[in-house]
Amino acid sequence: MLYHLFAASDGAQPLLADVNIFRYLTFRTFGAILTSLLICFMLGRRVIDFLRVKQGKGQPIREEGPESHYSKRGTPTMGGVMILGALTISTLLWSRLDNPFVWVVLLSTLGFGLIGFADDLAKVRKYTTAGISSKLRLLIGFSIAAAAAYVVSINTPEALRFQVAFPLFKDAMLYLSWLFIPFAMFVIVGAANAVNLTDGLDGLAIVPVMLAAMCFGIFSYVTGNAILTDYLLMPYVPGVEEIAVFCGALIGAGLGFLWYNAPPARVFMGDTGSLALGGGLGAAAVATKHEVVLAVIGGLFVVETLSVIIQVAYFKRTGKRVFLMAPIHHHFEKKGWQEPTIVIRFWIISVILALIGLATLKLR
Fold first, then answer.
1. Under 8 Å between Cβ of 206 and 258
2. Are 361 and 288 in contact (CB under 8 A)?
3. Does the pLDDT value for residue 9 go beyond 70?
4. pLDDT tens, 69-128?
5. CA distance 249 to 78
6. In terms of Cα–Cα distance, which of 174, 90, 185 is closest to 147?
7. What is the mean pLDDT of residues 237-252?
8. How large is the average pLDDT for residues 26-53?
9. Sign (positive or negative) of CA dihedral 21, 281, 78, 265
10. DSSP per-residue string spanning 76-115
11. Angle, to 10 degrees, between the axis of helix 270-287 and the axis of helix 206-223?
């Protein structure tokens, strides 16, 4: 919005005054970070108090879960509304509203957020860990992902439209034809559910999400710059650089939420936040042609998801368990690790994976 008020492109006149600094993507990205952070700081306590009053007992705790979680009874959930509110306001304020990639990523995030909100609401009302049916969640999720994949495809240059890029190899592209749409749908839905599975300890999911957002902010900036893509031998997608503003808003909202979610958490993001953030990251990966790199940067999410798949498949086949409890962070809790130890070590792993992902920019 501010861009259209104080700057313009293609010779058009701004609506108010021509303030040159609003033309710079880096300035607007940092503006988005600070705006979403301040919104969370200003409204966070009120949101938490409101959720506590409305929910009463707070988020249901799994009886078969680690005993340390029993002390968390009464903690309100659905704190993702704080993240989504700050993220949406900041993105709309600082981004170019005529950019289709911004709308794809933002609406994908909000769409998955609505799925999570319905799931959280069902859990709180019934006070059970079972929300809406998984089939319904997947049906709506894949519908959102299909729409996002289609819009991204028609706004991507024809030469790249149905291509998948591979890191470390220059000009290594795989043409999927119409299969690219199902592939992109799988990436977006998979990312949403992977972050959802990771969100099981105080602060565990939000920091890796912020690290991924930082990486994809950089990827979007580079991928939308013809000079940088030519130098780094990367695919060039004009317009996708504006996703950096969304990523900046996500980082700021994540920091603001972490202030209240740091152990011991005063609020949980719930499925409202985890599904939304994962879906947004998946959409950003598809738009920037970094779907494969998402699996590296989000390696922690991948491992958490695989631990659940392995546990369920092995138990159905043999009646035995590979892990003491899945997802894998609960396995370490059952082994006696303290929650802060698990969280901080997983954060360290996420930092390492983010650095590896960023290294793919140059290693081609």
1. yes
2. no
3. no
4. 656 777 899 999 999 999 999 999 999 999 999 999 999 999 999 999 999 998 888 777
5. 19
6. 185
7. 97
8. 95
9. negative
10. ---THHHHHHHHHHHHHHHS-TT-HHHHHHHHHHHHHHHH
11. 20
Residue 61 predicted with pLDDT over 70: no
Q: What CA–CA distance (Å, rounded) separates 358 from 162? A: 24
Residues shown for the chain = 364
Name the β-bridge partners of 165: 173
3-29 burial, b if ≥16 CB within 10 A, otherwise e?
bbebbeeeeeebeeeeeeebeebeebb
> Do residues 230 and 92 make contact, with C-beta atoms less than 8 angstroms apart?
no
Cβ atoms of 164 and 183 closer than 8 Å: yes
C-beta of residue 53 within 8 angstroms of C-beta of residue 270: no
Decide the pairing of beta strands 173-175 and 163-165: antiparallel
* Measured CA distances, 272 to 84, 109, 275 (Å): 9, 10, 6
The reported pLDDT for the residue numbered 113 is: 97
Burial of 68-104, coded b for 16+ CB within 10 Å and e otherwise, reads ebeebeebbbbbbbbbbbbbbbbbbbbbbeebebbbb
- Rounded to the nearest 5°, which phi and psi values hold at 175? -85, 120
3-state secondary structure 65-85: CCHHHHHHCCCCCCCHHHHHH
Task: Supply the DSSP string of 148-186, one letter for each residue.
Answer: HHHHHHHTS-TTTTTEEE-TTSTT-EEE-GGGHHHHHHH
Phi, psi of 163, deg, nearest 5: -100, 150
Residue 271 tokens, joined: 């499925």
Closest C-alpha among 127, 128, 36, 44 to residue 88: 36
Tokens of 174: 């795989």
Amino acid at 57: K
The 3-state DSSP composition of the chain as helix, strand, coil percent (nearest 5) reads 70, 0, 30
Query: Are 290 and 102 a contacting pair, CB within 8 Å?
Result: no
pLDDT digits (tens, 9 = 90+) for 165-216: 888 776 678 899 999 999 999 999 999 999 999 998 889 999 999 999 999 9
